[in-house]
């Protein structure tokens, strides 16, 4: 096992050991944001009938061929068709039908002229009125044809598609009320550290509140997984081994924070090695060098560092892609943009650096990025205020103010096209 690997190598290694979860069937509403596991077909033509796209008058376009401002064509309104009703009569020469948006087009009509451009000669424009048209209309104008959106039996959503809110409505209109989607991974979230106390407690000497488990559980949920926060585990090989073993049996993914380095009380690496197969221990990134990954009885186990920023960024770079793959998603890299940095960036560490930062637009509308003042890996606050991270490549090359840098966006999903 190499001592330290690149972020790209680490992501590839993790993803190579991740399988997509089996499908489950959910209601069409609950399918929003999830990946379809099978092709979904319409049971009818959508729309099942030709209908009007707006309020107006239905007739045959040929009736208005000679219409002009100087010689308008006048037609008698013989009926009204609201949405949900039908007109089963015949539209004779010199006649038309007033029609509402969504109403079925009469059988012998082929066009609709919108109400606003039609003149009223006598009456109020409703049944029994006479109306005038001062211009021809195109065949099929303002008509939505039957089957325009889908034909009966046609696949309207394909396996691998992400169902969005509009897709929920589309599927409902196609008669699809239950949707097979890839499962959501159940993720055990475990914080390691004898110094940790619950957020409701006031820390005593040498103690800190356990905030990592809440941040990571929120990250799991945002990635589509189902987090299960387990009780904090003391700094003990035996205690951690027992918890990880049981979590690996019950959950699809085990996520720990803390105890990932090489100190006397850091046990996640030896635990994974003892219970299963240890595949990774160190990644060329800062913060977040200490990253443990392996398999326990086939279940992925990932050990993040204890420092909040290191844990958070390790999750975004390596754990989030794994959870997305489990759910059938196919894009795993956060969107990236280029921006001019607003200040000088010194580099003392040859690792790849991820600087917490805020992306804005300058007075000219160009993207500008400003790093957080405090880049300590022990802080959540700068991450709360940041919407991106600046990537400083491997090496010791500094960056002058005004230079263009690469930024990974933290507030948009992987499908976003920039």
TrEMBL record:
GO-annotated molecular function: metal ion binding; molybdopterin molybdotransferase activity
InterPro entries to which the protein is assigned, alphabetical: MoaB/Mog-like_dom_sf, MoaB/Mog_dom, MoeA-like, MoeA_C_domain_IV, MoeA_C_domain_IV_sf, MoeA_linker/N, MoeA_linker/N_sf
Similarity remark: Belongs to the MoeA family.
Protein name: Molybdopterin molybdenumtransferase
UniProt keyword terms in alphabetical order: Magnesium, Metal-binding, Molybdenum, Molybdenum cofactor biosynthesis, Transferase
Segments forming domain MoaB/Mog: 188-325
A GO cellular component entry from the record: cytosol
The protein's role, per its UniProt record: Catalyzes the insertion of molybdate into adenylated molybdopterin with the concomitant release of AMP.
UniProt-listed PANTHER family: GEPHYRIN, MOLYBDOPTERIN BIOSYNTHESIS PROTEIN
BP term (GO), one: Mo-molybdopterin cofactor biosynthetic process
Cofactor(s) listed: Mg(2+)
Pathway membership: Cofactor biosynthesis; molybdopterin biosynthesis
Entry-linked Pfam families: MoCF_biosynth, MoeA_C, MoeA_N
Reactions catalysed: adenylyl-molybdopterin + molybdate = Mo-molybdopterin + AMP + H(+)
Cross-referenced CDD domains: MoeA
């Amino acid at each position: 096992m190499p001592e330290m690997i690149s972020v790209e190598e680490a992501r590839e290694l993790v993803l190579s050991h991740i399988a997509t979860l089996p499908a489950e069937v959910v209601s069409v509403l609950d399918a929003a944001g999830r990946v379809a596991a099978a092709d979904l077909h319409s049971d009818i033509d959508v729309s099942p009938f030709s209908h009007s796209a707006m309020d107006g008058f239905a007739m045959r376009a040929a009736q208005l061929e000679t219409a002009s401002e100087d010689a308008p064509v006048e037609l008698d309104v013989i009926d009204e068709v609201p949405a949900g009703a039908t007109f089963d009569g015949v539209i004779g020469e010199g006649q038309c039908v007033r029609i509402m948006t969504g109403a079925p087009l009469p059988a012998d009509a082929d066009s609709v002229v919108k109400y606003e451009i039609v003149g009223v000669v006598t009456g109020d424009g409703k049944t029994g009125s006479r109306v005038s048209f001062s211009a021809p209309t195109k065949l099929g104008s303002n008509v939505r044809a039957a089957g325009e959106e889908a034909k009966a039996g046609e696949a309207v959503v394909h396996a691998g598609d992400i169902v969005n809110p509009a897709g929920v409505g589309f599927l409902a209109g196609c008669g699809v009320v239950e949707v097979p989607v890839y499962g959501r991974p159940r993720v055990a979230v475990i914080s390691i550290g004898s110094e940790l106390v619950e957020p409701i407690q006031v820390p005593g000497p040498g103690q800190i509140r356990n905030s990592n488990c809440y941040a990571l559980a929120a990250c799991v949920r945002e990635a589509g997984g189902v987090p299960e926060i387990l009780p904090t585990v003391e700094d003990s090989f035996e205690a951690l081994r027992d918890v990880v073993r049981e979590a690996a049996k019950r959950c699809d993914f085990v996520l720990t924070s803390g105890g990932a380095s090489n100190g006397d009380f850091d046990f996640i690496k030896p635990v994974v090695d003892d219970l299963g197969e240890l595949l990774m221990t160190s990644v060329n990134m800062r913060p977040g060098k200490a990253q443990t990954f392996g398999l326990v009885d086939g279940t992925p186990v990932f050990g993040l560092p204890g420092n909040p920023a290191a844990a958070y960024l390790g999750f975004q770079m390596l754990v989030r892609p794994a959870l997305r793959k489990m759910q059938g998603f196919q894009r795993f890299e956060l969107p990236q943009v280029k921006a001019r940095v607003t200040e000088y960036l010194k580099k003392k560490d040859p690792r790849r650096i991820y600087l917490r930062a805020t992306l804005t637009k300058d007075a000219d509308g160009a993207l500008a990025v400003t790093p957080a003042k405090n880049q300590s890996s022990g802080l959540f606050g700068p991450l709360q205020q940041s919407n991106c991270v600046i990537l400083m490549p491997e090496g010791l090359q500094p960056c002058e103010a005004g230079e263009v840098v690469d930024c990974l966006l933290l507030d948009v999903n992987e499908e976003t096209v920039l």
